[in-house]
């Protein structure tokens, strides 16, 4: 039995939530996944899992053993990276995640320049608006918008963005311009549901009920709809920056905007920092700061 391989399979099953999900993630037959876990239990002479038809639960022994497996596999991974030269030269694979719109507008151009300078580093970009767990999902670096929770991760501050309320000049010419947040209840609104989960927009401690004529699930759709004169929308500043700059949208209620949100690069700080990650931080941080500063109203 290859114990490290069996540990990896067990850890994949725990992270995936079931043996069948681990089978799909690993591209391995379900019977093989089950056999490897059974071999571990036989070797340890201890039951690790309580199996059910669609899922399983860890025993007390299983919980402590999985925690030990995670530590061991991380240490083996570090040793292999060191042997491969990741800590001697900037090379290898770098996985980075960022919110979809910000990643496309700002991170992708910086990564394109980075790849030209570092030919031995390959980058995997994962754009997602969900909160990505770095260690659990094997991600090297995350760009995050908003206040950061206390954690063992390290963060490099890049700047701030604002939440802006805007509409097209044609819509405002026809319907007038709101002067205070409470006025919005009398206007057609375009609600971006990934930010506003109900029909209320927060301005500090004030919750304003709105009348959405249109609900959308992407910032691009909200901005495009506002440009078409369908109503007032509320997005993050970078999402509407181009439309505001070229006059297709006008910014409203600037005196009532909430405090700016921080933008940070977040990464794990356990042990030595691979040179591929250090190289990217040194390269990208000043460039992303400059791009954010260029958007500051």
From TrEMBL:
Keywords: DNA-binding, Transcription, Transcription regulation. Signal peptide: none annotated. InterPro entries: LysR-type_TF_proteobact-type, LysR_HTH_N, LysR_subst-bd, WH-like_DNA-bd_sf, WH_DNA-bd_sf. Residues 1-59 form the HTH lysR-type domain. The keyword NADP does not apply. It comes from the Bacteria. Transmembrane segments: none annotated. The keyword Nucleotidyltransferase does not apply. PANTHER family: HTH-TYPE TRANSCRIPTIONAL ACTIVATOR TTDR-RELATED, HTH-TYPE TRANSCRIPTIONAL REGULATOR. Belongs to the LysR transcriptional regulatory family. This is LysR family transcriptional regulator. It comes from Lacibacterium aquatile.
């Amino acid at each position: 039995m290859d114990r490290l391989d069996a540990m990896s399979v067990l850890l994949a099953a725990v992270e995936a939530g079931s043996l069948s999900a681990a089978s799909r993630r690993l591209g391995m037959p379900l019977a093989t996944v089950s056999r490897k876990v059974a071999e571990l239990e036989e070797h340890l002479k201890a039951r690790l899992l309580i199996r059910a038809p669609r899922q399983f639960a860890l025993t007390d022994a299983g919980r402590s053993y999985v925690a030990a497996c995670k530590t061991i596999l991380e240490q083996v991974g570090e040793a292999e990276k060191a042997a491969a030269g990741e800590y001697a030269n900037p090379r290898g694979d770098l996985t980075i995640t960022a919110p979809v719109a910000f990643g496309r507008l700002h991170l992708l151009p910086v990564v394109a320049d980075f790849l030209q300078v570092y030919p031995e580093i390959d980058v995997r970009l994962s754009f997602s608006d969900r909160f990505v767990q770095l260690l659990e999902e094997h991600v090297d670096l995350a760009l995050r918008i908003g206040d950061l929770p206390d954690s063992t991760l390290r963060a490099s501050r890049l700047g701030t963005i604002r939440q802006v309320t805007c509409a097209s000049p044609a819509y405002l010419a026809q319907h007038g311009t709101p002067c205070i947040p409470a006025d919005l209840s009398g206007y057609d609104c375009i609600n971006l549901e990934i930010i506003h989960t109900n029909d209320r927009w927060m301005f500090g401690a004030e919750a304003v009920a709105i009348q959405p004529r249109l609900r959308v699930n992407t910032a691009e759709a909200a901005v495009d709809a506002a440009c078409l004169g369908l109503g007032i929308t509320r997005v993050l500043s970078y999402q509407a920056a181009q439309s505001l700059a070229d006059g297709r949208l006008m910014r409203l209620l600037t005196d009532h905007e909430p405090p700016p949100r921080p933008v940070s690069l977040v990464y794990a700080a356990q042990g030595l920092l691979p040179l591929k990650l250090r190289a990217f931080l040194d390269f990208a941080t000043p460039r992303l700061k400059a791009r954010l500063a260029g958007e500051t109203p």
